Amino acid sequence: MAISVSPVNSNKVFALIESDSDQDKGGLFVSNNAGKTWSMVSGDNRLVQRAWYYIEVFTDPKDEDIVYVLSAPALRSEDGGKTWKRLTGTHGDFHDLWINPDNNKNMVIANDGGAELDEDNETKAIIITGNGEKAFVAGADISEFAHFDVSQGGELAAKGQELLFDFVENLSTPVIAAVNGFALGGGLELAMACHFRVAGVNAKMGLPETTLGLIPGYGSCHGNDTDRKHGDR
C-alpha cells in the first residue's frame, strides 16, 4: 500500500493498494473526508504492476486532481485518478519522485537507470536531496554485488557512471547537492558529481567501500575537466 495526502486539500487522501487475493480489487482509492470513507477511483492494472512494497503514489503540490503513480511505468492523472497517461523515460521501474512545492513544473524522477529531470526551459537550477534527515544517499548494498568478478564490477561501475553521474555532471542547468544525513559511497560520488554542494550540520560523508579494498568506481572522485569549470572538489 502507498498513501499520499494532497498538500492542497488535506481531506483528500489517495491510497494505492495491491490485492493478492483478487487482482480486480487492487487499484487507486480516494477519500475526500480525511480517510473516513473510501471509494475506488481506478482499477487500471498498470498502477499495481510491481510488488506492494515498491508502488508509490504522489499528489501534486498545486493541484489536488493531479496524481502520479510510480510502478513499472510512471503514470500521471489530471482528473483525480480516473484516467492515466504514461510518462516517457529511458528506463522502467520507477522508484521516487520529487516535485518542487513552489513550481510543479520542476521535478526529479528516479528509476532503474538513475535520475531524470524535466526539460522545462524555465528551470534555473536543480536541487538533489534526500527524503528526510536520515540520508542523502546511503550508498549501495555491497552484498548485492559481492560475488561479481573484476569484469562484472567494471561493467557495473562504467554503466552507473554513464547513466547517472556523468549525466548529472554534464547538465547545462546548475545542479546543487543539498546533503542531509549520510552520503556514503555512491551517495558521496553523486554529491561530487553535482556542480555545487551544501551540507547540513548532520551530514556524514565517507567512502566505506575503501575499507574493503574497493576503489570508488563512478568517476566523481577522480577529477576531470569539469573540475576546472566548477572549481576544485
What does this 3D model show about the protein?
With 233 residues, the protein is of the alpha/beta class. 14% of the residues lie in helices and 30% in strands. It has helices at 150-169, 186-193, 226-230; strands at 2-5, 13-17, 27-31, 39-42, 56-59, 67-70, 74-77, 85-87, 94-99, 107-111, 114-117, 126-129, 135-137, 175-179, 182-184, 196-199, 204-206. The protein has a four-stranded antiparallel beta sheet with strand order 1-2-3-4, with no helix packed on it. Strand 6 and strand 7 (74-77) form a beta hairpin. It is globular and about 55 Å long. The protein starts with a strand and ends with a helix.
Brief rundown of the structure:
The protein has about 230 residues and is of the alpha/beta class. The protein is about 15% helix and about 30% strand. The protein is built from 3 helices and 17 strands.
- The total beta strand count reads 17
Radius of gyration: 20 Å
Strand content: 25-35%
Oligomer: single chain
Helix segment tally: 3
Shape descriptor: globular
Total discrete domains: 2
Task: Report the span from N to C terminus.
Answer: 42 Å
Order of helices and strands: EEEEEEEEEEEEEHEEHEEH
Main beta sheet = 4 strands, antiparallel
The helix fraction, in percent, is 10-25%
What CATH calls the topology of the largest domain is Methylamine Dehydrogenase, Chain H
CATH architecture tag of the largest domain:
7 Propeller
Could you name the CATH homologous superfamily of the largest domain? YVTN repeat-like/Quinoprotein amine dehydrogenase
The strands making up the biggest β-sheet line up spatially as 1-2-3-4
Low-confidence stretches: 224-233
CATH class term of the largest domain: Mainly Beta
Q: What structural class do you assign from the helix and strand content?
A: alpha/beta
Mean pLDDT: 78
